[in-house]
Amino acid sequence: LQQQQQKQQHESAGSSSSCTATADLKAGHEGGLQLQEADLVAEAELDMHNAIANEYAREVSEIAQNTHALQRAMNELARHTISQGEMLEGIESQMEEAAEKTVKAAEQLQITEEHSRRNLKWTICLMMLVMGVSATVVSTLWR
Fold first, then answer.
1. 86/78 Cα distance (integer angstroms)
2. Please, what is the Cα angle at 93 between 87 and 98, to 5 degrees?
3. How many whole angstroms separate alpha carbon 136 and alpha carbon 112?
4. H helices of the chain, where?
5. 9 with 25: CB under 8 angstroms?
6. Which residues of 41-51 are buried (b: 16+ CB within 10 A; e: fewer)?
7. Cα 136 to Cα 72: distance, rounded to the nearest angstrom
8. Does pTM surpass 0.70?
9. What digits encode the pLDDT tens for the residues 97-137?
C-alpha cells in the first residue's frame, strides 16, 4: 500500500530528481520488510502462547486424571477399612464366645472332678465291703 502511494506521489511529482525517487522506494521497501518482520514476530508470539496454553491444558487434564485416580483409591481404601472393621468385629465376638465357653468348660471339668472323687470314694467303700464279705465267706468256709 505504501509502495503504491509512493509510486503515485512519484508519478505526480513528475520527474523530480532521481535520488529522491530512489530514496523513497528504499524507504517504502524497508517499511514493508519491517511490517513482514513484525508479522513474523507476532505469529511466533502467537505460536508460543498457543503452545503454552496447550501445555497448561494438558497439565490440568493430567492433574484432573490423577485427582480422579486418587479419589478412586481413597474410596477403595474406605471400603477395605470398613470390611476389615466388620471382620474384626466378627473375630471379637467369636473371641468373647470362646471365652464364655472356656469358662463353662472349666466349670464342667470341676463338677466332673467332684463327681469322680465322690464316685471313687463309693467305689472304694463298695470294694472294701465286697472284700470284707468275701473274707467272711472264705473264713466261714475254711472252718
1. 12
2. 125
3. 35
4. 2-13, 18-142
5. no
6. eeeeeeeeeee
7. 94
8. no
9. 999 999 999 999 999 999 988 888 889 989 999 999 998 88
